[in-house]
Amino acid sequence: QAVLKSTTKHPYPDWEPGAPVPYAALCETFSLIELTTKRLIIMEHCSLFLRQVMRLTPDDLLPTVLLMINKLAPDYAGIELGIGESLIMKAIGDSTGRQMSVVKQDQKEIGDLGLVAVKSRATQPTMFKPKPLTIRGVHKALMDIATVAGQGAQGRKVDLIKRLLSSSDATNRSKVDITKDKGGPSEAKFIVRFLEGKLRLGLAEKTVLVSLAQAVIAYEAEKKGKVPSISDIEKAESILKTVYSELPSYDVIIPAMMEYGIMELREHCKLRPGVPLKPMLAKPTKAITEVLDRFEGQTFTCEYKYDGERAQIHYVAKDSKEQLSQSLPSAGKQAGRGVASIFSRNSEDLSKKYPDILAKLHTWVKEDTSSFVLDCESVAWDVTEKKVLPFQQLMTRKKKDVKVEDVKVKVCVFAFDLLYLNGKAVVEKPLRERRELLHKSFQPVEGEFAFATSMDGQELDEIQSFLDESVKASCEGLMVKMLDGTESGYEPSKRSRNWLKIKKDYLSGIGDSLDLVVVGAYHGKGKRTGSYGSFLLACYNPSSDTYETVCNIGTGFSEAMLDELHKTLSEIVIDRPKPFYAHSSGSQHQPDVWLEPRYVWEVKTADLTLSPRYKAGMHEVDPAGDKGISLRFPRFIKVRDDKKPAEATSSRQVAEMYRKQESVTKSKGPAVDDDF
Ligand code: ATP
Fold first, then answer.
1. Is 306 in contact with 277 (CB distance < 8 Å)?
2. Per the UniProt entry, what are the Gene Ontology biological process annotations, in alphabetical order (predicted)?
């Protein structure tokens, strides 16, 4: 427990107190982490380094944490690097005077652009020693790269990457066999990997969060000449986890933590309008009886599960003392008597997609409601028939810069939860109370705003007929939620056992559809010649940060769709599988082309089976062997634009579904964080 020993130091030599933290110190930490797969050791390296930053240059703590989690800003700021492999290869070639073809060949052989950069730098004569990079400098340079826009943006991005790579230290390892060596603490390697969006260190975001809590509690104790107790460490971890789940913004949390101390953090960092929180999610079930078993002896409520897009609406009235967080790029849009923002399931800003919701908001917010955060589903609405339309209709809406007068597909907002009201978070209140507040503070307006239809009956046949009604009303099925007691509080970012979903079409199937990442494709034959005929899909393993293959899919696509997919996917073809793809090595199992991990598809399956061809959940179901889980008779349902690859169904979830096939589990245990 290094964190307990107040004298333990990070191995990198100290820098001047107050001086910018050298980027090399972070790379040294990364390369120590790279040498292990043990989470505790990873955490130790992380927290020792963070503690050193707190001691010497606390101003750099924020960019340090951001670079550790491979982010430049909170998700809701909408800042993405959006740089493909070929752009990075061009920058590596240009900055080291090597031909693109040589760089490509290296990438083919080595398969890790980070190491290709190291190799390229190692063979380049050094004309001058560049000024050492600093963490804040690298963060700023990466931010500049991400925010380049307009004409010629790609070219300017390459120039900026070139400049950054030229000032980086590649650590001359020319004597080392780069294909076997991990490349050491080279700055160029980690810059390139950051640009690719994968540091490949097995450093999960949650590990960084816990390490940060450990670092700060040790640092605070050290200032008093003490060592923190185990219970203090645990308390610090729990505080930081809770605070982050309600206010997922290191930009706000880190300065407050340094100013007030970790134990006081909850007082200063609370859920606030303008900063989207990660939504609470549901566990799948495949029978009403499973729901009854789970909630035995407790009250629950059933709601329609609308098939639209999740929308978290944040609002502050102009005349209230509060302000919508100004850290947003859009900083909220004018809406009725106030300012509002709408966020997706991913915390992306949807305000530009739904100006029609913002324009009508004043009709459904009651006079005395001064601020709120609402959890809702925005659903396509048939104005003539006055009913819900299928999800596919919603997908035809433009995503950006929508003008109210051009809106063809109208939406109705179905509100199912209230997280914040009139200056106070209400997440800890029981659902029954939150629902009462919701009904008191808003008024339904036909075709524009409604409360999710609910039913509090607890009997099997009541639930069955409510499920039938929901299907008739074009919904996906039911959400069943704990209604009373502390367990019925809103749990941000958790896939919780206190929310269960029953989907109409999986009552006899495996329990849920899966959201999978497209990682490869096969050329079509016969009628499908000229486009791709089938695809290789993978689930995501957050603990190893890898994509594990799970099936080939060729069913559920129309001809037109295949043509369209051929166009979009051709743009993200890569020469070889990413090193973080886990797939069988058998030559007969390789797809014709490999793809960047970018698109998530929803897929249904008849059942799950074990196969040596795929690797999904292998460590869970067949750790000693070589069989992963695979889908039988998979069928394409839709593209999930609202999910990023790292939000695809996880290997653990696939393994859970596989185990559940045999018996309906009644597994108890805490909810798991879904979004880490
Ligand atoms: P799915 O593909 O089933 O939407 P998911 O992983 O996106 O899966 P889940 O938590 O599993 O999300 O299912 C809940 C989703 O259902 C929410 O994200 C929300 O968009 C939608 N939804 C529709 N009606 C409700 C409701 N009454 N309560 C909660 N969520 C609802």
1. no
2. cell division; DNA biosynthetic process; DNA recombination; DNA repair; Okazaki fragment processing involved in mitotic DNA replication
Q: Does residue 481's CB lie within 6 angstroms of at least one atom of ligand 1? A: no
Q: Do 45 and 29 touch, CB atoms closer than 8 A? A: yes
Within a 10 A sphere around the Cβ of 255, how many other Cβ atoms?
Answer: 16
CA 660, distance to chain mean position in Å, is: 26
Residues 676 and 295: their CA atoms lie apart, in Å, by: 27
In the block, which residue shows the tokens 């008739």? 472
Position in ligand 1 atom list of the atom nearest CA 602: 2
Q: Is the CB of 501 under 6 A from ligand 1?
A: yes
**Residue 604 falls in the annotated catalytic set:** no
Q: Among 281, 502, 652, name the best residue to mutate to test ligand 1's pocket (greatest count of ligand atoms within 8 A of Cβ).
A: 281
Q: Whose CA is nearest to atom 10 of ligand 1?
A: 281
Model confidence, pTM? 0.80
DSSP three-state, residue 433 = helix
**Residue ranges of E strands in 492-611:** 494-503, 514-523, 532-541, 546-553, 573-574, 581-582, 593-595, 600-604, 607-611
Query: How far apart, in whole angstroms, are the C-alpha atoms of residue 40 and residue 175?
Result: 32
145 alpha carbon to ligand 1 midpoint, in Å? 35
Residue-wise pLDDT for 555-600, tens only, equals: 889 989 999 999 999 999 998 899 899 999 888 899 999 999 999 9
Range in 56-60, 211-215, 402-406 with the lowest mean pLDDT: 402-406
Name the residue at shortest CA distance from atom 31 of ligand 1: 305
Spatial distance between the Cα atoms of 19 and 56, rounded to a whole number of angstroms: 8
